[in-house]
Amino acid sequence: MPHSAHGRTMTRRPVTRSAARPPAATPRATIIILVLATLALLAAACGGSGGGSTDRGLDSGVFVVNESDSPFVPVIESTDIAVDLDRLVITLLDRTVAPTFAAGATFAVRYFDPVEGGLRFREDRPAQAIAIDGEIFYVATAPLDRAGQWELQVLVSLPNADRLMSARLPFIVALTTTSPTIGDRAPRSPTLTLRDGPLATITSDPTPDPSLYETSIVDALDQHQPFVVAFTTVGFCFGRGLCQRAVDQLKRIAATTSLIAIHAEPLVDIAPGATPVPSESGVLTDWNLESDPWIFVIDADGIITDRFEILVDAAELTAALERLANTVP
Questions:
Q1: Of 37, 39, 61, 204, which is the most buried if we count CB atoms within 10 A?
Q2: Domain 194-326: which CATH number of 3.20.20.70, 3.30.360.10, 1.10.10.60, 3.40.30.10
């Protein structure tokens, strides 16, 4: 079963390593109906009888999917989920729209890990709600220390002491990531710079900062300079606010630090109205990107020290830059 409830990472952010053409979007209502139907079928297969919106079975040790009446369902936006991944980005959907909660609500992600004979409650982790262009994303740390099929559930604690629970969503944790991870060497991609042409030919950012296109990844690696790179195609990003936000974060880094900041677009538009194709820089395949945007932090030895898929908040990014500074002799 896919970890994302409806594969929207491929349709909202059209980047795929296996094909140059982004797939057609699936209507959100259809996808959510399919998700709820799938959960109901899983519940029946496991002998469940409903009641997914209540806190059940924490003493039983083994859990079954039984969430067909839950008020909303989680969608995992993160695509590259593997052992030791320490964060997930999630959204919530209520049939066809995102649910809204009272001011002051707090959020947590409940994890269930695989054990012999089924699943067991692992632990709850707090989640941070981040609003971008009217859409709410939930970022939580994750205790993913073994491969296999996990499940998660989002808990919402309301100011009046009521608690809501989402459906439980199965997802697969792989042994290793498909894209470069912390501790890996950064691929030597010859990202496009101003040496390759004017700004309009190398970025779709409507207000580009030329400093983000002065140095390529290869240049920074050869110069043994630490750097931050964002992979995102602003002009073809279905959730454009996310992609523009990542580039704007790079602009702030360039303006306020001495770090090299690089923006590389995985897709390019070869002609007006044409389907975007992978950039000749090769970053789509070099970095095995399956979503958009990504931000990577690389030290002077060319080692990845942090990576963020979909989004990163200011505090997370600041902490990552502080860790990078601590690697400089």
A1: 39
A2: 3.40.30.10
Q: From CA 102, how far away is CA 208, in angstroms rounded?
A: 38
Report residue 273's pLDDT band, with 50, 70 and 90 as the boundaries.
low
Which own/partner contact pairs does 16-24 have at CB distance under 8 Å and 24+ positions apart?
16/284, 16/290, 17/284, 17/285, 17/288, 17/289, 17/290, 20/275, 20/276, 20/277, 20/278, 21/275, 22/236, 22/275, 22/276
- Report the distance separating Cα 327 and Cα 299, nearest Å: 7
In contact, 173 and 148? CB cutoff 8 Å: yes
The model's confidence at residue 270, banded by pLDDT at 50, 70 and 90, is low
Q: How confident is the model at residue 218 (pLDDT cuts 50, 70, 90)?
A: very high
